[in-house]
Specification:
Distance between the termini: 39 Å
Helix content: under 10%
Strand content: over 45%
Number of helices: 1
Number of strands: 10
């Protein structure tokens, strides 16, 4: 099972940028499509960006399209999320995970990293 550690969150003003990282343990990282998820207070966790195992395909939620960029480095077992033009509604705890495990309901979650965007 992949273990995950997210980092890079913080407090930023609207319009600012943050870069998140997710370090994964386990040799199967490079075989998994990975996603960044977020959960705001009182809301369900949602998928905001996903990247294929080889890094050639990406998908984004409409709410972040054009502002967020997901990438990965399989040599470092790390997936990244570059977030630009941040909005107060982007405030949430951000998590990464293997998309297949989330869909199958077999995933375990890291602690996440808090992103707070002030207006």
């Amino acid at each position: 099972q992949v273990q995950l550690m997210e980092s890079g969150g913080g407090l930023v003003q609207a319009g600012g940028s943050l870069s998140l990282s997710c370090a994964a343990s386990g040799s199967i990282f490079s075989f998994n499509d990975m996603g960044w998820y977020r959960q705001a207070p009182g809301k369900q966790r949602e998928l905001v960006a996903a990247i294929s195992s080889g890094g050639t395909r990406t998908n984004y939620a409409d709410s972040v399209k054009g502002r967020f960029t997901i990438s990965r480095d399989n040599a470092k077992n790390t997936v990244y999320l570059q977030m630009n033009s941040l909005k107060p509604e982007d405030t949430a705890v951000y998590y990464c995970n293997a998309v297949r495990a989330v869909v199958a309901g077999t995933s375990s979650w890291g602690r996440g990293t808090q992103v707070t965007v002030s207006s």
